């Protein structure tokens, strides 16, 4: 027997929660706990652990566990860090911030309606439905049935929103991890907003791949379809001055003794902040391009690339900026993408030639809808992620900057990301290790 938070699936879909959800520490479909006082994406929320499992177990709206054993699958266990992660998404502020990000939400809405011919009359899965907004867009686009899955307690609210909009016959809210819930039919479309800071932070893409491998029909559609992570060297004297040079003269007092500590405090970890196109010293390098239809979870564990830049100007070089874009396009619809799903960007990720970096511009921007978090694009809540050096390097015009970057899922907490950066310029070489937590 299958049950959902919407109290049934009158349209005929079958769904529920596997026993694994219970074994992984869930008292019910979700991972309850007190909502955290965080407004931003779970960068800060994941730092605090919550073990409080109360709140949802007695709620009649939450899904019930299925009574058969899932013997074949071995979903990744739900750790304390995952519980804290899902708790951070139980707070309304984080959803408000995302929904108010017009660049993000409008692009998803437009992409869903642009693919209406592939959604109308079809079965959709929304991986990480949050408030249910994308599921509702899909229902409005004519989906026959939408499975809206979220492990956070926000799923309970999503279910209320679905009911209030008279969509309970179409949208079935499942309160649990996609790794654990059961859906007894294949889906035509997967929609998900999974991108973290620096694209891969938060490690939610693995859950989308799991969902794809469990339920997506051959030839099905994933929105977004492609994602690309970029990096570029930046100069940001104002930022350096405001955090470091500030200590040279504080109310007439020489506090420069603070400067080493100030550098450590300001620049030890990656920093999420907004820069402008003017801060960027040259064309970006593609760190990783993924096709969501073919990507494997193993590919995400370590992402590594070598880069070569040539500074376009003489400037103090303060660090590297990272940003991403995602593209909503179906290879079977876009002729130019053929069946082997060519990426929207021309060059290969490991192409290190500086001249060819210049060709890493969108081949044809009209092909698919793109949500970009680049410095020159409209601002988003993701901003850009900066990895600053402790001391700037003075670079001349045309000076070469080369090295490598490796992004690895943290062993301590798979939601965290280790960043290993090696770079050299002007005959000097450096290594910077940091953790995005
Ligand atoms: C970035 S939010 C997006 C929310 C909503 N789709 C939107 O666009 O506003 C990601 C959501 O995915 C949920 N989530 C992340 N990983 C999940 C998983 N493995 N199973 C179920 N839900 C997950 C989180 O709890 C969170 O609510």
TrEMBL record:
<comment type="function">
    <text>Arginine methyltransferase that can both catalyze the formation of omega-N monomethylarginine (MMA) and asymmetrical dimethylarginine (aDMA).</text>
</comment>
<feature type="region of interest" description="Disordered">
    <location>
        <begin position="28"/>
        <end position="77"/>
    </location>
</feature>
<dbReference type="GO" id="GO:0032259">
    <property type="term" value="P:methylation"/>
</dbReference>
<dbReference type="Pfam" id="PF22528">
    <property type="entry name" value="PRMT_C"/>
</dbReference>
<dbReference type="InterPro" id="IPR025799">
    <property type="entry name" value="Arg_MeTrfase"/>
</dbReference>
<dbReference type="InterPro" id="IPR055135">
    <property type="entry name" value="PRMT_dom"/>
</dbReference>
<feature type="region of interest" description="Disordered">
    <location>
        <begin position="335"/>
        <end position="370"/>
    </location>
</feature>
<keyword id="KW-0489">Methyltransferase</keyword>
<dbReference type="InterPro" id="IPR029063">
    <property type="entry name" value="SAM-dependent_MTases_sf"/>
</dbReference>
<protein>
    <recommendedName>
        <fullName>Protein arginine N-methyltransferase domain-containing protein</fullName>
    </recommendedName>
</protein>
<feature type="compositionally biased region" description="Basic and acidic residues">
    <location>
        <begin position="64"/>
        <end position="77"/>
    </location>
</feature>
<dbReference type="GO" id="GO:0008168">
    <property type="term" value="F:methyltransferase activity"/>
</dbReference>
<dbReference type="Pfam" id="PF06325">
    <property type="entry name" value="PrmA"/>
</dbReference>
<keyword id="KW-0949">S-adenosyl-L-methionine</keyword>
<feature type="domain" description="Protein arginine N-methyltransferase">
    <location>
        <begin position="227"/>
        <end position="330"/>
    </location>
</feature>
<feature type="compositionally biased region" description="Basic residues">
    <location>
        <begin position="40"/>
        <end position="50"/>
    </location>
</feature>
<feature type="domain" description="Protein arginine N-methyltransferase">
    <location>
        <begin position="368"/>
        <end position="425"/>
    </location>
</feature>
<keyword id="KW-0808">Transferase</keyword>
């Amino acid at each position: 027997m299958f049950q959902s938070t919407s109290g049934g699936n009158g349209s005929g879909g079958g769904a529920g929660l596997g026993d694994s959800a219970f074994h992984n520490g869930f008292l019910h479909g979700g991972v309850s706990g007190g909502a955290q006082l965080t407004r931003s994406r779970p960068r800060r929320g994941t730092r605090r652990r919550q073990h409080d499992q109360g709140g949802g177990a007695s709620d009649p709206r939450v899904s019930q566990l299925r009574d058969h054993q899932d013997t074949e699958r071995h979903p990744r266990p739900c750790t304390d860090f995952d519980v804290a992660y899902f708790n951070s998404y139980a707070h309304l502020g984080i959803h408000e911030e995302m929904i108010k990000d017009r660049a993000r939400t409008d692009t998803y809405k437009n992409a869903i309606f642009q693919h209406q011919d592939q959604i109308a009359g079809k079965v959709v899965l929304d991986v990480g439905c949050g408030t249910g907004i994308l599921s509702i867009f899909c229902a409005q686009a004519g989906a026959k049935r939408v499975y809206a899955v979220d492990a956070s307690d926000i799923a309970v609210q999503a279910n209320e929103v679905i009911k209030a909009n008279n969509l309970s016959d179409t949208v079935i809210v499942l309160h649990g991890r996609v790794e654990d819930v059961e859906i007894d039919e294949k889906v035509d479309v997967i929609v998900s907003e999974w991108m973290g800071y620096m694209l891969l932070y938060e490690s939610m893409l693995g859950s989308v791949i799991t969902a794809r491998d469990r339920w997506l029909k051959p030839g099905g559609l994933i929105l977004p379809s492609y994602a690309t992570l970029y990096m570029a060297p930046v100069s940001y004297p104002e930022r350096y001055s405001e955090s470091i040079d500030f200590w040279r003269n504080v109310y007439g007092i020489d506090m420069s003794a603070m400067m080493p500590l100030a550098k450590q405090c300001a620049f030890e970890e990656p920093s999420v902040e907004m820069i402008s196109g003017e801060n960027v010293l040259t064309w970006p390098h593609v760190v990783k391009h993924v096709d969501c239809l073919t990507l494997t979870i193993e590919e995400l564990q370590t992402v590594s690339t070598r880069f070569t830049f040539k500074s376009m100007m003489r400037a103090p070089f303060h660090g590297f900026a990272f940003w991403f874009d995602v593209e909503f396009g179906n290879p079977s619809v876009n002729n130019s993408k053929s069946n082997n799903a060519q990426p929207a960007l021309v060059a290969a990720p490991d192409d290190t030639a500086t001249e060819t970096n210049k060709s890493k511009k969108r081949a044809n921007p009209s092909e698919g809808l793109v949500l970009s978090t680049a410095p020159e694009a409209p601002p988003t809540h993701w901003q850009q992620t900066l990895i600053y050096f402790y001391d700037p390097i003075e670079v001349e015009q045309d000076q070469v900057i080369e090295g490598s970057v490796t992004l690895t899922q943290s062993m301590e907490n798979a939601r965290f990301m280790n960043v290993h950066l090696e770079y050299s310029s002007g005959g000097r070489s450096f290594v910077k290790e940091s953790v995005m937590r």
